[in-house]
Amino acid sequence: xxxxxxxxxxxxxxxxxxxxxxxxxxxxxxxxxxxxxxxxxxxxxxxxxxxxxxxxxxxxxxxxxxxxxxxxxxxxxxxxxxxxxxxxxxxxxxxxxxxxxxxxxxxxxxxxxxxxxxxxxxxxxxxxxxxxxxxxxxxxxxxxxxxxxxxxxxxxxxxxxxxxxxxxxxxxxxxxxxxxxxxxxxxxxxxxxxxxxxxxxxxxxxxxxxxxxxxxxxxxxxxxxxxxxxxxxxxxxxxxxxxxxxxxxxxxxxxxxxxxxxxxxxxxxxxxxxxxxxxxxxxxxxxxxxxxxxxxxxxxxxxxxxxxxxxxxxx
Length: 315
What we know:
By secondary structure, this protein is of the alpha+beta class. It has twelve helices and eight strands. Helix content is about 50%, strand content about 15%.
């Protein structure tokens, strides 16, 4: 068996060589001087090698608690390497390949730091009712998911947060503006900004690359100066009657325009929310963007018709 003093005295040669320890563990000394702990084993009838870690002079041994979370591939003491060798032997005895598990764990750890992984966590958090006031309305969440899927997933999804730089994002937003218009480009910037803020809020130490990209460098928007007047509203509803679509869809659009509710609030309606005697529909706070219940008053005839399109049974 090797001793610490022997391990420290190993010097590089003209070519790499091995020095055995015990129970399949040995040290390889590369021509560069790197000393690596390796373990040879058989799995599914084939010989396999696991690189347990590497040795550096002065590396202290871990405590028992630290060893519980120690993974293959770290800088190790000789005692640590033997403990991980024993863990690998137990894995082989249990029918697990330690080399394959090492690769899967490292891949999973790397994937956990990608923009795509954090975008998924952000969407999950914003969809969860337990997030309270941070929960997004269904329509807003659907919009942001669409922006991610169409503009961000392919170029950014597999990149680590640390690897995404302002220059790359500027080019991406400019391309989105040229191909899809200023609105989607601004939404893309907003989503990247929010995903980074979410990750940073969870303790990830990373600089938000969007902080240096001002929204006005992509586009600015003039606020709406007026609403439709009565004549224009009538023109819209007259045109709706001649639009080639399902009659039920026409009624649904008319209902939402008259009541000014969002699609998610409308399609989620249930019978218990309707008070026919008072001619009201009360949307609970859980489905409202402002997190406050909203009462809709008439027109009852149209409301009854449109609700019958969504709710069953309808009487």
